[in-house]
Amino acid sequence: MNRFIALSVVIAATAWGASPNPRVTAAAPPPLEVSQPPAPPPQPSQPPLPGAGSFGIRAGFGGSTATPGIDVGNVGMKLMVTDGMSLGLDVGVGLTAASGYSQASFAADAVLGIFLRPRGASLRPYVPLLFGVGFASRAQQQTVPVGTTTVTTTQTAGGISFAIGGGIGAEYWFAPSFSVAAELLLRLVATNLDPIAVSIGTLTPGIHATYWF
């Protein structure tokens, strides 16, 4: 029995001696985890600017393009026929009263705007085409001496005006629901107001503010 134990010890020592420098394999370290920066919060989407089918209410200030030959302020509506074309319909009413003189005016027009920049641009130049009609009635008192007395008479006149025109304009959107447009037109006006006349002339720039729905 002692001889068997001794033989086992010799065999074990021989096997250990065959590998004097045993290699110990270390486990590979786990890969480093790189933390990713947090994703930015989603930006709120900007409502699109008015396109085909949109409409708004507008009012005119300063020089009026709504009144052919009878410049009065105007209000109306504006419709986007397509993304690149608008149609404005305006009416204007004016009343003037002074010592011995009065005038009442009414006008209506249609302005077709052809935009030169695509939808989405805040500033959009366009070509306006104007078609309008206006009415006016005037009354003026005159004092005529008759002998040793005077007689006051009232002269009245009225008529109608037609106008067509074209020019250049630009509309700027401060927000999707609010824009301001300015126009400068060259127009041809025919009127039978006293005196009867046909004229060609430019307008003081017409300015319109529109609230879009």
The total of beta strands comes to 9
- Shape descriptor reads elongated
Uncertain residue ranges: none
Average pLDDT metric: 77
Strand order of the largest sheet: 1-2-3-4-5-6-7-9
Taking the sheet with the most strands, its summary is: 8 strands, antiparallel, barrel
The SSE string, one letter per element, is HEEEEEEEEE
Q: Structural class, from helix and strand content?
A: mainly beta
Number of helices: 1
Instruction: Please compute the radius of gyration using only Cα atoms.
Output: 43 Å
Query: Which percent range describes the beta-strand content?
Result: over 45%
The share of residues in helices is under 10%
- The CA-CA distance between the termini, in Å, is 108 Å
What do these coordinates show?
The protein is mainly beta. 8% of the residues lie in helices and 58% in strands. The chain contains one helix and nine strands. It has one helix spanning 2-18, and strands spanning 55-62, 75-82, 85-98, 101-115, 123-146, 149-175, 178-191, 197-202, 206-212. It has an eight-stranded antiparallel beta barrel. Strand 2 (75-82) and strand 3 form a beta hairpin. It starts with a helix and ends with a strand. The model has no long low-confidence stretch (mean pLDDT 77).
